[in-house]
Amino acid sequence: MYVRHPLIREETVEARLYQEVIVGSASKANTLVVAPTALGKTVIAIMLAAHRLERFPGSKILMVSTTRPLVNQHAASFRAFLNLDGGEVSAFTGHSPPEERLELWSKSRVICATPQVVENDLISGRYPLSDVSLLVFDEAHRATGDYPYAFIAQGYLKVARNPLVLALTASPGGDEAKIREVCQALAIENIEVRTERDRDVRSYIKGIEIEWVRVDLPEPFLNIKRNLERVMKDRLSSLKALGFLTSSDVRIPKRDLLILRERLQGEVAKEPNPDLYMGLKAVAAAITLSHATELLETQGLETLRRYFEKLQKATSKATRGLLAEKEFIRAVRLTENLAQEMHHPKLEALVGIAAREGGGRMIVFSQYRDSAQKTVERLNTLEGVRAVRFVGQSSREDDKGLSQKEQLEILEKFRQGDYNVLVATSVAEEGLDIPKVDLVVFYEPIPSEIRSIQRRGRTGRSRAGRVVVLIAKGTRDEAFYWSGVRKEKRMREVLEGLKRGLARPEKAEGQKRLQEFEAPEMELKVIVDSRELSSSVARELLGHGVLSKPQRLEVGDYILSDRVGVERKTVEDFLQSVIDGRLMEQIKALKESFPRPVLLLEGEGLYSKRDIHPNAVRGALAAVAIDFGVPVIWSRDEKETAAILALIAKREAGEGREARVRGEKRAASLEEVQEFIVAGLPNINVTLARRLLEEFGSPQGVFDAKEEELVRVKGIGEKTAAEIRRVLGGKYEGK
To answer: Global pTM?
Structure first.
């Protein structure tokens, strides 16, 4: 039995009662749908899209997804299921030029896009969302912090005539505060939860069998661990003696150490003292030791050896202190001697599993790339196994990432059977279409309920699936596993509680919500370096009524007028630029390029974030302000940065000064070039430049005008006229 709808192609969408119930509920209020991958969340989005397009003819559907492959996958699904012309469904990614997106937007009825593209287009004012009758957020658990989802949702709900939000996720997490943050960010009013155990779902789920394989760490591993723990005990005892910890138990979670480091950094910034510096050094060493122990227990000696290699190249005081410790050096030497001949027992267990599978299709999830590489090499020694490593795009010193094109090629070969084992890092957990997997292996448990659910969702789609979790006894593996189990249970409890607590609005479908938000009038534009769009400053500027025109800038990050250029630096970037010598070159270029240059320094912890003497930092600030005459403005965060930039831009606009890049290769028109030239005269803004050109007909006419002729122009006083004549008629002496 299939869904019958004028906008859904016949016999393409199977009629499932639970999907129809969810669509009916989601049509009445902004809804978060939480369901495993196999339950067809994309089909729910397509069914609701068809309903909205029929109800609001001429409207559009916008679906945002986290990656380009996922965007293209969703666009293909809409084309396959909806009764629309192929050209009415478009995919917007970073590969789509802005001009092309603007044209496609006008003629498309369904647009699938990455959030970064939509965010940048909204910041630049390329197209409105007023005609969008349904906004779908895939992988909705991402709607926290600075991720663009919240910004897009807020912008949509401000302007849409018939707004409706559908948010989709396999798991929003087990932390109640984060789930509430997601719901608030996306204006969620209703929650629909489905699991494999629900009565209306069971017949569509093939089931997943979970098996736990436990292994013992060999004695050489335990010997290395004991050496690391002795050094760890010493650092924790120091922290306890200083009053920063209440216990020196070496089983302290790494997360607690990271929280302690952040607290100590904050205290150092307020009132530095020797105890705080000693504490920071000790906690940094403890974090390093905790991570090394985790690699040993969960990954093996080769991964630990590579980590030790990196530490021996490091220059921090905490690391140098560790490298002087006898027990630490012993752990390093033991690891180096054994790494080539001794594998983690989980790897041998995995080899046995793969051999028993007899060439079946499987995914092995590994937290670390080094382990993934070692796993591929070992598995490919087995008859019938054709394994390939599948990692993300980022590259490291000796480890090149995979481009999205390469990722898609590997997935296609996996789909066709050229490979039958995918050894993947977290990149394969979310979104990508990897069908018909018989077995999923967790090389290590993970304490994240979101990632655990996503991993399991890779099997059990078209037939019964299996999951094997490898666990090293008495190690962090066990702690991580039970942490994930508790978080999953907590997630379900929180969702049920929120579902009961969310008020269902008694509103007619399509009625406008969040009327209290008024869209600011976008009249003011500033020029923003396109690399700055990764921060939230540009989107915050939009809230101040300032549109950002992205452009690759050679000098500065923000051009607020024809004379004001701003170099924005976070505290971390400022300190790094002092270390590598970039700062003075950048400030010199800024000074030479803009009559009114500004350095905007953002953040806190200037004297505590890096191992730099405070006098070096003060000297750099003094050089910027005194030697170059560039004022330094401070801001707490990106929000305050945007407020400062907007204030300056509006102040400049009030004086008739428009944002413009001096020295652009090509201006939009002859008039703009002429205005630009005249506006370079002393005390002349764009408004006065236009008046002068209207009076004298050309830049040449302005340059030839006498003082008494200049003062006849409104806004030009005697002093300004005299200064113009002095500059134009004065002899150039050179340097």
So the answer is: 0.69
Average pLDDT of the residues in 349-367: 87
For 208-215+348-473, CATH number?
3.40.50.300
Residue 39 clears pLDDT 90, i.e. is over it: no
Task: List, for residues 447-487, the tens digit of each pLDDT value.
Answer: 776 667 666 666 655 556 788 999 999 898 888 888 777 77
At how many degrees (to 10) do helices 274-298 and 301-313 cross?
150
Burial of 454 (0-12, 13-18, 19+ CB in 10 A): buried
Is there a common fold for 208-215+348-473 and 670-729? no
CATH topology for 524-654 is Rossmann fold (3.40.50)
Q: Please say whether the beta carbons of 459 and 360 come within 8 A.
A: no
The Cα 310–Cα 291 span in angstroms is 13
Q: Residue 591, class by beta-carbon neighbours within 10 Å (0-12 exposed, 13-18 middle, 19+ buried)?
A: middle
**CB contact set of 650 (below 8 Å; sequence gap of 6+):** 524, 546
Give CA–CA dist 622/632, Å, rounded: 10
> Tokens 């087995």 label which residue?
382
Radius of gyration of the chain from its Cα atoms, rounded to whole angstroms = 30
Over residues 496-508, the pLDDT tens digits come to 777 776 644 444 4
309 neighbors 396 (Cβ within 8 angstroms): no
| CATH 3.40.50.300, applies to 670-729 | no
Range name among 226-235, 306-315, 656-665, 674-683 with the lowest pLDDT average: 656-665
Tokens 């250029």 correspond to what residue? 565
pLDDT at residue 476, as a whole number: 87
Q: How far, in Å, CA of 468 to CA of 354, rounded?
A: 11
Query: For 211-225, 229-243, 417-431, 450-464, which range has the lowest pLDDT when averaged over its residues?
Result: 450-464
CA dist 60 and 42 (Å) reads: 17
Sequence spans of domains, the chain: 17-204, 208-215+348-473, 219-338, 524-654, 670-729
| Architecture, CATH, for domain 17-204 | 3-Layer(aba) Sandwich (3.40)
Task: Tell me which of 3.40.50.10420, 1.20.1320.20, 2.40.10.120, 3.40.720.10 is the CATH number of domain 219-338.
Answer: 1.20.1320.20
